[in-house]
Design brief:
- The chain is mainly alpha-helical.
- Helices cover about 50% and strands about 0% of the residues.
- A two-stranded antiparallel ribbon has the order 1-2.
Length: about 280
């Protein structure tokens, strides 16, 4: 389209809007005012409804205060010494939470948490400047419609998946469990139900169910993003204890051992007793 054709098209559009369009004042001002009042009224209504659902104030100063279906007034006072707290982000960060579960490699964390969300936001903000055609018909703007619909759908899907992430539980009393979950950084990377850990950076051990030899090899020498714990100063007994614990309880439930427990029978739990009190667990008794 030549410059002359663009000027003529603009003039036709200008003439059409002059004949049929509505002025900014009072029409646009009125619409904005109504929308603002409805939004503020909705927020105030939800706040009043939330307040009306509050339960009585508890005499215990550290206890929370119950609420209705919109949530409690406040929860119990935080306990910094707890070992079973399951940290969860607010719902509007669930999409980031899910991205961290997808990009499990530690080297990809920056890409998952910073680069991808930034690219999506920049693309949405920049699209009006990229696609500057005056056409408003939906059928003639397929790229803009696909972009405008796809990004919210992706964010909603990631949010939904993040909300379903498995919770972590309490650490069991089995030999090696406390060391796996607390003394060592294993739980920050791996999910293992028996240890009450829900790390998503490394493989889910309940799914992988490694045998003793495999677990010992990875723990001793490291591989990929996993460090060598032998180089970090762990003794042979400590290494065997953790490997035996993983092989015994990965894929297990309660007191039912995992499918590869027999591969660790010669070393576990005897190695945990020799490894020290942090590793012995119930075996110390």
């Amino acid at each position: 389209m030549t410059a002359r054709e663009r000027r003529e098209a603009y003039q036709r559009e200008h003439d059409f809007q002059t004949r049929t369009g509505k002025p900014f004042f009072p029409y646009a001002i009125f619409h904005d005012t109504v929308t603002s009042l409805v939004t503020v009224g909705l927020i105030m209504g939800l706040a009043i409804l939330w307040h009306e659902g509050f339960g009585p104030v508890n005499d215990d100063g550290q206890a929370g205060r119950a609420g209705g279906f919109l949530g409690p007034a406040y929860e119990n006072q935080a306990d910094p010494g707890t070992e079973s707290y399951d940290p969860r982000p607010e719902w509007y960060f669930f999409f980031l939470f899910q991205l961290l579960r997808i990009f499990k490699n530690p080297h990809m964390l920056l890409f998952a948490t910073i680069i991808i969300p930034t690219l999506l936001m920049v693309l949405l903000l920049a699209w009006p400047f990229i696609d500057r055609r005056p056409e408003r018909r939906v059928s003639r703007r397929p790229a803009a419609m696909v972009l405008g619909i796809a990004i919210p759908i992706v964010l909603l899907f990631l949010t939904w998946q993040g909300s379903k992430a498995p919770s972590i539980g309490a650490v069991s009393a089995h030999p090696g469990a406390s060391a796996f979950a607390n003394s060592l950084p294993c739980g920050t990377c791996h999910t293992l139900a028996d240890a009450g850990t829900g790390g998503q950076v490394g493989p889910n051990l309940d799914n992988v169910k490694p045998d003793f030899a495999t677990a010992l090899e990875f723990i001793t020498n490291g591989k990929g993003g996993m460090p060598s714990f032998k180089q970090q100063g762990l003794t042979d007994d400590q290494l065997k204890c953790i490997a035996g614990y993983v092989a015994t309880w990965a894929g297990g439930s309660g007191e039912t051992k995992g499918p590869n427990a027999a591969t660790a029978a010669d070393a576990y739990p005897a190695s945990c007793t020799a490894a020290g009190a942090d590793y012995a667990g119930a075996a110390a008794g």
